[in-house]
Amino acid sequence: MLAAIGSARCGYIFPVAPNDLLPTAQSQFLCTLELVGDGDWDRPTPCDAWRVRDLVAHLVSGEHMVVALLDGASTDEARALIGSVRTDGDLRAALSSAFAASRAAFDGPGALERMVHHPVGDVTGSQLRDFRVGDATLHAWDLARAIGADESLDPALVDAVWTQLEPLSAVIGSIGLFGDGPSGALGADDDPQRRLLDLTGRRP
Fold first, then answer.
1. Residue 44: helix, strand or coil by DSSP?
2. What is the pTM assigned to this prediction?
3. Which residue from 19, 39, 129, 187 has the highest number of Cβ atoms inside 10 Å of its Cβ?
4. Domain region containing 90
């Protein structure tokens, strides 16, 4: 049975199947994106050398890669899509459209069981969906920090992304995507969102 999930505050309500957090992550990012004003697009973000427009374009290209991978793209074809989105167009509309396309692709018959050729290695469609949940969740915080908006993340997303990434804690700093990885300064009693941010090289 499908339920509706999202934020009535900013108008993004998506149907979602049980155990599917992708619409929640996408809605969270889009709600923050609505707060971006005309003068915010060139603000720096916590991601090295990325402005707000670069961050949003990164997410657009990631969703394009999802659709291509689930359609049978090779590793090289998928890699070519990374960074392929121009940063001078209507990025808000482009991301909304790209999010919808990736949700539709994941909803396709057999999509979650399909093996795809992601640049990090072959993964299932379900694992690919987890990647996209993590990307949208963490970058929602990056965007909020960049524009001075509310940085609170959905607790269900925090828990899911922590579960996905915590097993990599010993090596995550060497992957090249998460800064220096965990600082080692936080423990199990610290705030879950703060622990997730620290795990992924973010130092609020």
1. strand
2. 0.90
3. 129
4. 3-154
pLDDT value, residue 145: 98
Q: How far is CA 113 from CA 28, 63, 72, 152, 198, in A?
A: 26, 18, 13, 32, 32
Q: For residues 41 and 60, what is the distance between their CA atoms, to the nearest angstrom?
A: 15
Give strand ranges (E) for the chain: 3-7, 12-16, 115-118, 121-124
**Phi and psi torsions of 4, nearest 5°:** -100, 135
In a domain, 198, yes or no: no
- Region of 87 on the Ramachandran plot (φ > 0 left; ψ -120 to 50 alpha; else beta): alpha
> Residue 125 domain-assigned?
yes
Q: How many domains does the chain have?
A: 1
In a domain, 168, yes or no: no
Is 52 domain-assigned? yes
- The token pair that represents 203 in the structure block: 């130092």
- In 25-159, the DSSP E strands lie at 115-118, 121-124
